[in-house]
Amino acid sequence: MSKIKLLEDCVYELARLPSIGRKTATRLAMHIIRMNADDVHKLASRITAFKDNAVFCSVCGGLSESDVCPICTDEYRDKTSICVVEEVKDLFVVEQTGYFKGVYHVLGGKISPLEGIGPDNLRIDELIGRIAADRVKEVILATNPDVDGETTATYLARKLKHFTELKITKLASGIPLGTHIEYADEMTMLRAIEGRRQV
Ligand SMILES: [Zn+2]
Questions:
Q1: Which residue among 41, 59, 78, 176 is buried most deeply as judged by most CB within 10 Å?
Q2: How many A from CA of 119 to the centre of ligand 1?
Q3: In the 8-state DSSP scheme, what is residue 183?
Q4: What's the CA dihedral at 132, 136, 141, 143 to 10 degrees?
């Protein structure tokens, strides 16, 4: 404890962010005090503006500045091909490859009995609704290659089986087991999509 309350308050808030421990928070706070005041204010106001104005797309669950995101409103994107991801950050990784021309569906997590997350906590009904409404031809399951991600993919594949015309595919196993999609480089992700196989 530094006994400087202003510092302690700042460290406390920073340390609440994911993967930031007290040590890192203190280092960041000490960096902030040395920063140009305008830059610090810009940082604070951009965080606030992001929080106040960015929303989740009402269709795909991706990040957006309006009710429906630019990908969902893009008439050149193929609405009959949906790539299903766990989180928005995974969408960014797939999108970065520039290969996939369909649309996305963000589940908002994965089935995790240990964390008490079941299918009802995910945006699965919304996905089913879109498949029926847009006559979707292919669903690419791009969940993470870990136990919960695999469980989620298996659950979805079973749940979507009754759409007899629907092709259900899964990313190729190019992504090393246990590695999260968010850490996959562009080439690895590209190969994983290109080499996707039917389930
Ligand atoms: Zn969207």
A1: 59
A2: 21
A3: G
A4: -60
